[in-house]
Amino acid sequence: MIVPPRRPAARIHAALARFFRPTRILCLLAGVLVLAACAPVSLPVRSSFADPDPILAENSDLLAEQNLPGSERYQVTPPRELPGPLPGRVPLAPPGRPGNLRLPGLAEAPPRATDIPEFPTLDDLEVEARLERLAKLPPSLGLDLVRTGLTQKGRRYRRAGTSPVTGFDCSGFTQWTFRQHGLSLPRTAQEQYNTGIRIGTSELRAGDLVFYKINRRGRWHVGIYMDDDVFVHSPRPGRGISEANMKDGYWAKRYLGARRYTR
User: Are 222 and 209 contacting, i.e. CB atoms less than 8 angstroms apart?
Assistant: First the structure.
């Protein structure tokens, strides 16, 4: 039997089939790998709220001295969902110009970078010496307020913050500290200044509030007086709760006065 020779088109088709067969296999494998890489993977999410609070851990001794109820000592309830948008229109900086996003409804006006220089702080050894001197004084509400405030030492500043969960601004820090001892303070530093009992500088004692006017735009600041011209406060964005000296030149020329709150 004589087999007729293959036509050129048939030979070309057979050659192409042999060439593209491994190519199709490689394309199929590549498609499988791409699908596997893009498929969602359910990984366990570690909640940051489950981690121990480093501030509370560092200041646990001071916190234990307060004998506060558990409901007041650990008011750290993680939010279930993010809050919705704030009411009103949010003004943005003009296009092409640098600027900060300003949110409406905040308790205190957000400061500009030039408003608040780097606040002077005290040396740790100096602070420790003052704390040892305070520990030798008779127990009082003022000392308890100071110790409660120091349990949050190192907690970062947060604009409009009022709890250890979010962080504190200056008046949110004083409001939270006093609330732990059954004292209700207004929200802003100016309101706290207007409603407290007026006292002179020579009458200052532990637990009193000292007030400052930071800039010409009327930004207020408040801290809790400790002892020997030293107060503890939540100073500014990027800084944690710390101590400062009232006699420092920066604070001395901005001092407004002091107020006392009692039961």
Answer: yes
Instruction: Exactly one of 13, 27, 38, 221 is catalytic; name it.
Output: 221
Task: For residue 233, indicate whether it is catalytic.
Answer: yes
Q: Is 181 a catalytic residue?
A: no
For residues 107 and 185, the answer to whether their CB atoms sit within 8 Å is no
Catalytic residue, chosen from 13, 27, 38, 233, is 233
How far CA 145 is from CA of 68, 76, 179, in Å, comes to 12, 20, 10
- As a three-state string, the secondary structure of 239-259 is CECEEEECCCHHHHCCEEEEE
Nearest one of 195, 157, 188, 158 to 171, comparing CA atoms: 188
pTM: 0.58
- Name the residue with tokens 């006699």: 247
Known catalytic residue at 221: yes
Strand segments, DSSP code E, in 28-119 are none
Residue from 13, 38, 170, 181 carrying the catalytic annotation: 170
β-bridge partners, 211 = 222, 257
Taking only the tens place, the pLDDT of each residue in 170-210 is 999 999 999 999 999 999 999 999 999 999 999 999 999 99
